[in-house]
Every structure is written in C-alpha cells, then in structure tokens.
Amino acid sequence: MNIEYKDTHNFDCEELERLFLSVDWSSGHFPDKLVVAMKNFNTVYSAWDENKLVGMICVMDDGIMNAYVHYLLVDPNYHGKTIGRTLVNMVKEKYKEYMRIVVVAYNDELHFYEACGFEKGNNTSPMFITSLWT
Questions:
Q1: Which partner for 83 in 11, 55, 77, 127 could form a disulfide, CB atoms 3.0-4.6 Å apart?
Q2: Where are the alpha helices (DSSP H) in 2-131?
Q3: What is the pTM of this model?
Q4: Where are the alpha helices (DSSP H) in 74-134?
Q5: How far is residue 107's CA from residue 97's CA, in Å, rounded to a whole number?
Q6: Distance of CA 101 to the CA centre of its chain
C-alpha cells in the first residue's frame, strides 16, 4: 500500500459519502453539502490509496493567528497506518507560524491528539448547536 497525500478541494459525492459513513458520521448522509463544504475550507489535505479516498483533514483559519481543525477522519480499515498523524503533521507544518491550532476532540480521541502535540485546555469546554437537515 502506497498512500498518496493531496492538497485539493475537489471531491465527488460518492467519495465523501463513503469516507464519512465509514466512521459513522451523520454528515455522510449529505454528500452534496460536503462537496460544497470542501470547497469552502481554507485547507483540505486528503489521503488516497490509489483512487480510494481513505482520509482527510479540513481546516478553517483567520489568515494570521488561529486555525481550526474541523474534520479529521480516516477510514477504519486504514487505522494504525499513520495516516491521521501524517495529515495532522501537514497541518502543523502549514500553520507553524500561527499562534494557535485548535481541535475539538472527543474523549476517546484525546490520546491521539496529545500524541500529536495538542494539549487539553484548562477551564474550556466545547459547545455546540447541532441541527439535522431534513
């Protein structure tokens, strides 16, 4: 297996749907919206096994100080192959001059992000308003 990493914002609905649903993310049910979202992110790095999308990281930034990792996902069949870590390192390199790179991690992801150099914030809590499209 030879994973290729790309810097692109152009994806097919089917590619995004398959990847997002492989990790049980509800946004995978809206692949047409994901196609548009990918075009709007400042940074999108993706991982490919030949023609198969197997991972991606998407980042929004303010252009000078703060970058926000919105998505990081890797097809479960490719876990343990350093794809996620490589994608994070690509983002860390791009935003190395920024004051802060922020990620909202679920508790079961904390170990991964800490191993990538992130620190859990003190006195902070992620907050959400979630709306499901009908």
A1: 55
A2: 13-22, 31-40, 83-94, 110-115
A3: 0.91
A4: 83-94, 110-115
A5: 28
A6: 13
First to last CA, the chain: 39
**pLDDT for residue 130:** 77
- Residue 36, both tokens: 């548009």
Which SS3 state, helix, strand or coil, does residue 8 take?
coil
* pLDDT tens digits along 69-104: 999 999 999 999 999 999 999 999 999 999 999 998
HSE-CB for 27 with a 13 A CA cutoff: 15
Total number of residues shown for the chain: 134
- DSSP class of 9: -
* Domains of the chain (ranges, CATH numbers): 3-115 (3.40.630.30)
